[in-house]
Design brief:
Blueprint (H helix, E strand, L loop, with lengths): L1 H6 L1 H38 L41 H5 L14 H20 L3 H23 L4 H14 L15 H26 L6 H14 L4 H23 L10 H26 L1
């Protein structure tokens, strides 16, 4: 089977797309439940220090990424395996609960499809091999980070710190045969992690000293450090530039088009994640095009 996948690029991309659909379905669970799990942990740690009740009711009993089984949030009916087939079940059910007919958020199939599409692009770009496998793993992780940060303005340490350590560990296998983007040298990975963290840490404290306000969260430092560990310090300028430009443009549009309050905090993690993913695939091409344009 592995030999067949290595010999047929369309088959390899198709298998990756189908498998990533399933992963995307699980990401929906991670995106929803992990922030709740974090809040429960914080509440348990604070019980001895405060008697203030939580802002909203937290689930009782075991609650993690496996238990309890998924249910309709409206009527509580269990979601069966046939009702949980990525994208297809949503279309067959016409976006509604099979039991109570309450509308289901379209975001669920969007996350599933986008995860599969981005993973398939990685498979197409890198071809069969370890580099494609690790690129897909990074893609899946960045999707979960971006969505959680967009929802909660939190980047969980339980995701971003292992991501950074995996990037550093991958450098031990440098040079990986057939690898041109990932599996960078240990020196580049270590300096990338350090420079990534310190770059945004410096911006944070510079902004705080000038304005007295927090400009971003510590999770952003860690995410850029993880991207530096995966892609090397050389790619950090383009990641920062792309995320800042795109983030500023989108926020300006939101302010003027929707009347968004300028004082409302805006998550930066999704822009970093998107810029990191684009840089992983086309960083050198973008960098060369930039220098050709400027010089």
């Amino acid at each position: 089977m592995l030999e067949l996948l290595s010999e047929s690029a369309p088959l390899f991309i198709g298998v990756v797309f189908a498998f990533a659909l399933l992963i995307g379905s699980f990401l929906n669970v991670v995106i929803h439940r992990l922030p709740i799990m974090m809040e429960r942990e914080w509440r348990e740690q604070a019980d001895d220090l405060s008697s203030t009740p939580p802002e909203h009711e937290l689930p009782e009993g075991r609650f993690d990424l496996v238990v309890p089984r998924s249910r309709c949030p409206s009527c509580g009916a269990l979601i069966t395996a046939l009702q949980n087939v990525p994208v297809i079940s949503y279309l067959l059910l016409r976006g509604r609960c099979a039991n109570c007919k309450t509308p289901i958020s379209v975001r669920y199939p969007i996350v599933e499809f986008m995860t599969a599409l981005l993973a398939a692009i990685c498979a197409w770009q890198f071809g069969p091999g370890w580099e494609a496998l690790m690129a897909i793993a990074l893609t899946i992780t960045l999707v979960s980070i971006a969505m959680i940060d967009a929802d909660t303005q939190l980047i969980p340490d339980s995701i971003v710190l292992p991501l950074m350590w995996v990037g550093l560990a991958m450098s031990l296998f440098h040079p990986m045969p057939g690898s041109g983007t990932l599996f960078i040298s240990p020196g580049d990975a270590i300096v990338g992690a350090m420079a990534g963290y310190l770059a945004l840490w410096s911006v944070f404290w510079g902004f705080k000293l000038v304005t007295g306000k927090d400009g971003m969260g510590y999770g952003d430092f860690k995410l850029l450090a993880a991207l530096g560990a995966w892609l090397g310090w050389q790619q950090l300028p383009i990641i920062i530039m792309m995320s800042a430009v795109v983030g500023a443009a989108i926020n300006i549009v939101l302010i003027f088009a929707r009347g968004k309050d300028r004082n409302i905090p805006i998550p930066f993690g999704p822009y970093l994640a998107a810029a990191g993913w684009i840089t992983m695939l086309w960083g050198e091409t973008i960098k060369n095009a930039y220098f050709d344009l400027m010089f």
